[in-house]
Amino acid sequence: MTSALPPSTKPPSGPVSNAPRNHRHIRLTSHPTRGSGKPPEIHWGAANPADRGPVVATVTHPEHRNAIGVHAGGYGIYRALAVAAQALAPDHKPDLTDTSPAASIGPFPQWADPGKIVSFDPWGHLVADVFADRLAAGWDIRPTIAVTKARVSMPEVKDAVEAGRLAPDGEILLSAGDVRVTKAAIEPVWWLPGVAERFGVAETALRRSLFEHTAGMYPELVTRPDLKAFLPPIGGMSLYFFGDVAKLGHAETPIACRVHDECNGSDVFGSDICTCRPYLAHGVELCIEMAQKGGVGLVVYNRKEGRALGEVTKFLVYNARKRQRGGDTAAQYFARTECVAGVQDMRFQQLMPDVFHWLGIARIDRFASMSNMKSDALRAQGIEIVEQVPIPDELIPLDAQVEMDAKKAAGYFTPKKPDLVDLTVAKGRGLSE
Ligand SMILES: [Zn+2]
After folding, report:
1. How much distance in Å is there from the Cα of 76 to the middle of ligand 1?
2. pLDDT tens per residue across all 433 residues of the chain
3. Among 14, 174, 342, 346, which lies 20 to 30 A Cα-Cα from 61?
4. Residue 395 Cα, ligand 1 centroid: separation in angstroms?
């Protein structure tokens, strides 16, 4: 099997040993090993990366480790599986040659405020550069952010060109309807004191809840208060930039933005029970328009499937909505979610504004969202929203009218609130329609 692997994952010779370096006993991480000294310190929010220090969440050199959890969110389990299956050498270190960001982002003054970015490492894309000396000395420090360039092709963009709403310019929007973008992937790195503060809870209470409600997956959360960085096993985010990324961080640059929470059913498969993909596409259109006017467009795509409840819960809720007496109505929309999940929503937008601080954005000129939770969270973090742009009615799919009415009634930004009678009319399709 190893012959199919890229060269960098091949062991030097013979079968891969999945025993940790130099010892075969299980190493418990719940307490510091005797004589190992203090972990390398992290001074979160230090302006200079050398003073800040690297976040080390790799397991190859326990003496360098200063974070709880591992890299790659939930994919860390696949890495463990690859080691167990003897497909990956347990001490493999990535070769970072030529992996540096394809566009420069930061540093911005916001990086030097420990309270502004608490859910990922602002230096995450620059580790190969700013910690080059330690990497050369054998430390295993991994990037938690990567920045690259791409072309994207969406049928909705081509439709917008055909309808005359967008015109190809040959630079950003090409004649075939393809769009040049810069994109970034960000893995979560939670600075626990900062996350606790953002939610208004004590750090010990946050650590205890994370420990207990992950069935004790991370004992260091309660035994190692000295470790304050945590790489949670959750999805991160993808950023798509339209226009010149170098214009970020300048107050005069106008910004258009869509903050989008993942919805696989709609985003990828075009399921019509919600407005997710139409809103995403509408956001992309506004972003292209802004880039063509000399500003920057930004789509923030958060991996928070089904209001961060997950797709199984989401599908259970769909069934409950469509089978309830009286049919699928806006009046019962949130109640059905609450019956199954216990809450209406677990996305908690409190951490979402971090990415704007990371990009040096203090003002969003056109915000393609109707969510009051998103706009409130941004404003609470001091980010100005000049104009909130609702989705045009003609882009709302038929079966999604229930969701749209329910959200408007609950406080979503809209020029016209639905009336009470309207909310009780069944508008969603039945299960077998
Ligand atoms: Zn959706």
Report:
1. 27
2. 344 444 444 444 445 555 555 556 887 777 776 666 789 999 999 999 999 999 999 988 999 999 999 999 999 999 999 999 999 999 999 999 999 999 999 999 999 999 999 999 999 999 999 999 999 999 999 999 999 999 999 999 999 999 999 999 999 999 999 999 999 999 999 999 999 999 999 999 999 999 999 999 999 999 999 999 999 999 999 999 999 999 999 999 999 999 999 999 999 999 988 889 999 999 999 999 999 999 999 999 999 999 999 999 999 999 999 998 888 888 888 888 899 999 888 888 999 999 999 999 999 999 999 899 999 999 999 999 999 999 888 888 777 888 888 888 887 777 777 777 777 777 777 888 8
3. 14
4. 14
Could you tell me the distance, in angstroms and rounded to a whole number, from the CA of residue 265 to the centre of ligand 1? 6
Residues contacting 365, CB < 8 A, separation 6+: 254, 255, 256, 290, 295, 386, 387
Ligand 1: centre distance to CA 30 (Å): 40
Residue 378, C-beta contacts closer than 8 angstroms, at least 6 positions apart: 352, 353, 356, 364, 367, 385
Q: Which residues surround ligand 1, an ion (CB under 5 A)?
A: 263, 266, 274, 276
* Annotated catalytic residue, options 65, 198, 258, 347: 347
Residue of 121, 140, 261, 345 marked catalytic: 345
The answer to whether 347 is a known catalytic residue is yes
> Do the Cβ atoms of 71 and 233 come closer than 8 Å?
no
The residue with tokens 């967008």 is 166
Q: At what angle do helices 192-199 and 203-212 cross, to 10 degrees?
A: 100
